[in-house]
Amino acid sequence: MEDKILILKGIIEKAYRIEAGFENEAYFHGFIEVLDDEQKRVLLKLIMDSEKHKITLEKLAKILGFELSKPEEIKFSYDDKRIFNEIYELEITAKILYEQISERFADILGENVEIFKELAREEEMHAKLVEKYVDRTLRIV
Q1: Which letter, b or e, does each residue of 2-33 get, where b requires 16 or more Cβ atoms within 10 Å of its Cβ?
Q2: Strands, E, within 14-65: which ranges?
Q3: Could you tell me which InterPro entries the record lists for this protein (predicted)?
Q4: Of the residues 21, 27, 37, 77, which has the maximum number of CB atoms within 10 A of its CB?
C-alpha cells in the first residue's frame, strides 16, 4: 500500500506539472497569439480553470500529506502551427490522466476521488470548447 501511495504522489506531481506548466504556458502563449476575440475568451477560461485545477491539486496534496514542488519553468513550443491542436491534445491527456487516477487510486483517495472525476469532466469540457478550432487557427509566424 505504501508503494501505491508513492506512485499516486508521483502521478499527482505530473498532473500538477501539466496544470502549472504545460497548460498554463500553452494557454497564455495562445492568448497572446490569437487575434479572434471569441478564441481569446475561450483561452482566458482555460487559463482561469487551469489555475483553479492547480490550486485544487495543491490542496489535495496537503490532505494526502505531501507538498507539490513548483515545476520548472517550461518553454512550450508548438510542434504544430495550429495552436488549438496542441491545446486539444493537452486537454485530452489531462482528462485521461484524471480518469485513470480516479479509477486506479479510489481506495487511497476515498471521497477525494470525486475531485479527480470532476477534474476529468472539466478537462473534457475544455476539449469540447477548443475542438471547433482544431486544424483552423494558425499561429502568428
Answers
A1: eeeeeebbebbeebbbbbbbbbbbbbbbbbeb
A2: none
A3: Ferritin-like_SF
A4: 27
Give me the amino acid identity at 54: K
Count of CA atoms in the C-beta half-sphere (13 A) of 58:
11
Residues 56/106, Cβ–Cβ less than 8 Å: no
Residues 6+ apart with CB under 8 A from 41: none
CA–CA separation, 120 vs 88, rounded Å?
14
Beta bridge partners, 82, equal: 138
Phi then psi for residue 12, to 5 deg, are -65, -40
Average pLDDT, the chain: 89
Q: Which CATH architecture has domain 2-131?
A: Up-down Bundle (1.20)
Contact (Cβ atoms closer than 8 angstroms) between residue 81 and residue 136: no
As a whole number of angstroms, the distance between CA 9 and CA 110 comes to 15
Please state the pTM of the whole predicted model: 0.88
